[in-house]
Amino acid sequence: MSQAASSTSSSERPVVARRLLLAGLAGSLAGCGFRPLNGPPAAGEADIAPELAAVRIGRTFGRTGQLLHQALDRRLTARNRTAPAARYELTVSPLPAYEALGYRRDGAPTRVRMVITAPWTLQTLSVPARPVAAGSARAVDAYNVVDNEYFASVVSSEAAERRLVEQIAEEIVLRLALSLREGGAA
């Protein structure tokens, strides 16, 4: 066996071992009844994807609101490309906040913590509207402010904002799916 072939196979061993471990974990979780909430329904269980696709997202404001609206829309219609009639309205109000964590000797910030809190409500579109679920999602991230590189700092802050928005959208959709599955559906 050549030197190159042995080094390649040894570098692939951790990847193969990780895949086998993940497959084993997935198999053991499947045996205990675990399955993804937004996955295909089990036998005799209603599919939650059409209920999620029937959620209309209300107006959001600002750049953070726009990013959150897009992230929510991707998740709500992920498995159901046909647009059913909207039966619910999701109202979300993302509130970003910034806090300086580190400072240079001259007082300029070197690290910034970004926190986005997003209170949300889901209600029916019937008249009168009936509340179905409500909650608040929160995510925290931080980024460095690089000296003399404004562009790098802006890119870092935008990347942090996108990560936070994705986390919040994931949490909101998960909680919506739980609420609709538990019988909150109209």
Features:
alpha+beta, globular, 186 residues, 4 helices, lipoprotein, 2 domains, Double Stranded RNA Binding Domain, five-stranded mixed β-sheet, 45% helix
In CATH, the architecture of the largest domain is 2-Layer Sandwich
Run of helices and strands: HHEHEEEEH
Quickly count the helices.
Answer: 4
Distance between the termini: 66 Å
Report helical residue fraction: 40-55%
Shape: globular
Question: Could you name the CATH topology of the largest domain?
Answer: Double Stranded RNA Binding Domain
Counting structural domains, the number is 2
CATH class of the largest domain: Alpha Beta
Structural class by SSE content: alpha+beta
CATH superfamily of the largest domain: Lipoprotein like domain
Keywords: Lipoprotein
InterPro entries: LPS_assembly_LptE
Protein name: LPS-assembly lipoprotein
Organism: Muricoccus pecuniae
Give an overview of the whole structure.
This is LPS-assembly lipoprotein. One of its GO terms (biological process) is Gram-negative-bacterium-type cell outer membrane assembly. Keywords: Lipoprotein. The protein has 186 residues and is of the alpha+beta class. The protein has two domains: 34 residues; 137 residues, Double Stranded RNA Binding Domain (2-Layer Sandwich), CATH 3.30.160. The protein is 45% helix and 25% strand. The chain is built from four helices and five strands, in the order ααβαββββα. Strands 1, 2, 3, 4 and 5 form a five-stranded mixed beta sheet that branches. Helix 3 links the parallel strand 1 and strand 2. Helix 3 packs across helix 4. The N terminus is likely disordered.
